[in-house]
Amino acid sequence: MLRAAGVGSGDEVIVPAYGNAEVAEAAVLAGAMPVFADIDPRTYCLDPDAVDAVVTPRTAAVVAVHRFGNQADIAGLHAVGQRHALLVLEHAEPDAPHDGMAQRQAYASYLNGRLTGVITPARGAAHSHQYVVRVPGNGRPDRDAFARAVRARGVDCRVPVKTPLHRTPKYWRDVELPQTERAADETLALPVDASLTRRELQRIVSACNALGGLLQPAF
């Protein structure tokens, strides 16, 4: 899409640093320079204000990535694009199997209503891929220690983004993206597979709540 739009050498493409390298790599393959902007802490998608702040005369495009079933603020990004005459493209995560999607949504709703040991996802997230929570440190076990303890209680979990791209050797940038870095430090993906049993769901809740007991502060 970038090449077809005429994006190439000397251009900059604004992309998120929170996630995999696929979109940044696409900019590089088109001959452009990926520029990282910060994310909205609720959706993990590009924040239009943060995008606006990194636009330069060389910026040609913005690529929004929809993350964890959350939708990027496309209207806000298009407003930035119109203001600066930029191309705004969308990139979705790979589709999850449709079988069992309603069950996954039901499980996510169950967890939303019962988890107190972590910060649950924003309302409206589709959870078709991952149910991603936050584990803030604030004096309690950090995310990695929390994950180890949850696994020890028989709950499968994984860190969705271990290192943001602007902190990796290939894409290192001397920029500060506080919401991106915070999300990489705090997020944890819990299972919402359609194959889960009620007992397994209850185990997730009891393990997380026993370890955390955190209130859910507003961002």
UniProtKB/TrEMBL annotation:
The reply to whether Iron-sulfur figures as a keyword in the UniProt entry is: no
Q: Name one Pfam family in it.
A: DegT_DnrJ_EryC1
Biological process terms in GO annotation: polysaccharide biosynthetic process
Q: What GO annotations for molecular function exist for this entry?
A: pyridoxal phosphate binding; transaminase activity
| Statement: the UniProt record of this protein carries the keyword NADP | no
Q: Which UniProt keywords apply?
A: Aminotransferase, Pyridoxal phosphate, Transferase
Membership in a protein family: Belongs to the DegT/DnrJ/EryC1 family.
Protein name per its UniProtKB record: DegT/DnrJ/EryC1/StrS aminotransferase
Q: What organism is this sequence from?
A: Streptomyces alboflavus
